[in-house]
From TrEMBL:
<feature type="binding site">
    <location>
        <position position="256"/>
    </location>
    <ligand>
        <name>substrate</name>
    </ligand>
</feature>
<keyword id="KW-0007">Acetylation</keyword>
<protein>
    <recommendedName>
        <fullName>Glutaminase</fullName>
        <ecNumber>3.5.1.2</ecNumber>
    </recommendedName>
</protein>
<dbReference type="InterPro" id="IPR012338">
    <property type="entry name" value="Beta-lactam/transpept-like"/>
</dbReference>
<dbReference type="GO" id="GO:0006543">
    <property type="term" value="P:L-glutamine catabolic process"/>
</dbReference>
<comment type="similarity">
    <text>Belongs to the glutaminase family.</text>
</comment>
<feature type="binding site">
    <location>
        <position position="157"/>
    </location>
    <ligand>
        <name>substrate</name>
    </ligand>
</feature>
<dbReference type="GO" id="GO:0006537">
    <property type="term" value="P:glutamate biosynthetic process"/>
</dbReference>
<comment type="subunit">
    <text>Homotetramer.</text>
</comment>
<feature type="binding site">
    <location>
        <position position="164"/>
    </location>
    <ligand>
        <name>substrate</name>
    </ligand>
</feature>
<dbReference type="InterPro" id="IPR015868">
    <property type="entry name" value="Glutaminase"/>
</dbReference>
<feature type="binding site">
    <location>
        <position position="113"/>
    </location>
    <ligand>
        <name>substrate</name>
    </ligand>
</feature>
<keyword id="KW-0378">Hydrolase</keyword>
<feature type="binding site">
    <location>
        <position position="238"/>
    </location>
    <ligand>
        <name>substrate</name>
    </ligand>
</feature>
<feature type="binding site">
    <location>
        <position position="188"/>
    </location>
    <ligand>
        <name>substrate</name>
    </ligand>
</feature>
<dbReference type="Pfam" id="PF04960">
    <property type="entry name" value="Glutaminase"/>
</dbReference>
<feature type="binding site">
    <location>
        <position position="63"/>
    </location>
    <ligand>
        <name>substrate</name>
    </ligand>
</feature>
Length: 302
């Protein structure tokens, strides 16, 4: 199969949709991104690679980083983790306070913001410097030694992240954070501000396509890789997971920076980036691009 010809066709088809959608301007540094940016990259288990557009330009990966922190937490505290975080779709907004109160401080899954804060707390407790740990992990997975945080984005989120702060203190009131909320928030805001390209993210997620194994060895067990892929399918695209599974049919994780990473276990890892978002916080052109990829390639888990 020629992935390059498929990506070229998608790039041509998707161009008219790029001005659509709304950039996540509630994070001021993200509001500066050109709405016409579009990149797409794929790596397969046989060593193949293809890309189009702005696939080598770095962007703020935002909630895509939650897959990395979840992986780190599962490596160090798998049993403890699932006593503190659920594994069900939320059906509500990713930053909902109401659901957290109704369910006594146990977030529905690790990809909504409350769940990611608990996962970050676990990483802090077990690895100490959660910011350095996540950065080095991303560098290992991608093979890019200069990956780093965009400190302007991290500062922007910290200054205006009132709802996330409310979630963190709410979790603490339920006894579901071990560390001080401000420490957890600082690590969380930096994680979301990690800057990577489509090419780097496609390489980084290959351990989920290879059943837990990266190019330099095992990252997690095959059963843990299966668990993360299943969570991406059921919870990875905010409260649009049903529609995404229906139209694309691949485990995926999106971020409000406009990136979406999708995985076909045993086959490939694919990343698309376009900053214009739909009403649920997923890249509008990116979602369409992945839908076209599934149709043109005939690849899905179903």
């Amino acid at each position: 199969m020629s992935y390059q010809s498929i990506l070229d066709q998608i790039h041509e088809e998707i161009a008219p949709t790029l001005p659509q959608g709304r950039i996540a301007d509630y994070i001021p540094q993200l509001a500066c991104v050109d709405e016409r940016k579009f990149g797409m990259a794929i790596c397969d288990v046989d060593g193949g690679y293809a890309s189009v557009g702005d696939a080598d330009e770095r962007f703020s990966i935002q909630s895509i980083s939650k897959v990395f922190t979840l992986t780190q937490a599962m490596r160090t505290a798998d049993a403890q983790l699932w006593r503190r975080v659920g594994r069900e779709p939320s059906g509500t907004a990713f930053n909902s306070l109401v659901q957290l109160e109704f369910e006594n401080g146990i977030p529905r899954n690790p990809f909504i913001n409350a769940g990611a804060l608990v996962v970050t707390d676990i990483v802090l407790s077990h690895l100490g410097d959660a910011k350095a740990a996540l950065r080095e992990f991303a560098r290992r997975l991608s093979g890019a030694s200069d990956i780093d945080y965009d400190l302007r984005v991290a500062d922007s989120e910290a200054r205006l992240g009132y709802r996330n702060a409310a979630l963190a203190y709410f979790l603490k009131s339920f006894g579901n954070l071990e560390n001080h909320p401000d420490q957890v928030l600082d690590a969380y805001f930096h994680h979301c501000a990690l800057s990577m390209s489509c090419a780097e993210l496609a390489r980084s997620f290959m351990y989920l396509a290879r059943h837990g194994i990266n190019s330099d060895g095992a990252v997690i067990s095959s059963s843990q890789a299966k668990a993360i892929n299943s969570l991406m399918l059921t919870s990875g695209t905010y409260d649009a997971v049903g529609a995404f599974a229906y139209s694309v049919g691949l485990p995926a994780k999106s971020g409000v920076g406009g990136g979406i990473v999708a995985v076909m276990p045993g086959q490939f890892s694919l990343c698309v980036w376009s900053p214009g978002l739909d009403g649920r916080g997923n890249s509008m052109a990116g979602s369409l691009a992945l839908e076209r990829f599934a149709a043109l390639s005939g690849q899905s888990i179903f």
